[in-house]
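F.,

This is the one I mentioned.
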């Protein structure tokens, strides 16, 4: 069983095999964690994303990490929150499932996730964190994975994730 950890800070500084990016369907870069990852990885990351062309909501694609210490970036596109009746929960679970599948296919031993969809895309934090932890746990016993980090950018998110990881 891979170890589940909660970390507060910037995902771009983590020493892991792969970090997950909360991207958009165009894979065009953006603000939030996406912007931070592109800045840290350098312009080659945008070129690699352009070559892939795009990624539908709920799916995931992989690129090298370029200047990041992480060898890979897994880009996944979370749902935009529209009130909860538009399949948001299933799409968010799909992001975590597809990211874990790609990590396992690439023999990744350690991976860090940001709190997908809970920034610009407006997904309520507590509900998103339950889905994140539940879905990742289902995969935590598979294959190569040894360490899974939920990387929270602020103390509120850190506390929410910590409570869910500990209580489940
Ligand atoms: N490290 C870790 N987490 C971060 C960082 C960082 N450097 N920067 C921001 N975050 C956190 C935010 O605090 C939030 O909890 O990532 C979470 C996700 O927020 P967003 O980055 O806004 O992602 P999301 O809500 O999925 O929206 C995606 O935003 O930047 C654009 O291109 C992106 O259009 C896409 C949309």
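My design for it:
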């Amino acid at each position: 069983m891979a170890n589940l950890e909660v970390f507060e800070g910037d995902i771009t500084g983590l020493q892991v095999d792969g970090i997950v990016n909360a991207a958009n369907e165009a894979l065009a870069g953006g603000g939030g964690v996406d912007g931070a990852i592109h800045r840290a990885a350098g312009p080659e990351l945008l070129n690699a994303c352009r070559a892939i062309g795009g990624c539908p909501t709920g799916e995931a694609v992989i690129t090298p990490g370029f200047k990041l210490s992480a060898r890979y970036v897994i880009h996944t596109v979370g749902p935009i929150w529209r009130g909860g009746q538009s399949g948001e929960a299933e799409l968010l679970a799909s992001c975590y499932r597809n990211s874990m599948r790609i990590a396992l296919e690439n023999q990744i031993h350690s991976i860090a996730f940001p709190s997908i969809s809970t920034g610009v895309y407006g997904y309520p934090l507590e509900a998103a964190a339950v889905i994140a932890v539940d879905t990742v746990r289902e995969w935590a016993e598979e294959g190569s994975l040894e360490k899974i980090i939920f990387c929270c950018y602020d103390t509120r998110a850190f506390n929410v994730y910590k409570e869910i990881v500990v209580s489940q």
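The chain has five helices and six strands.

Talk soon.
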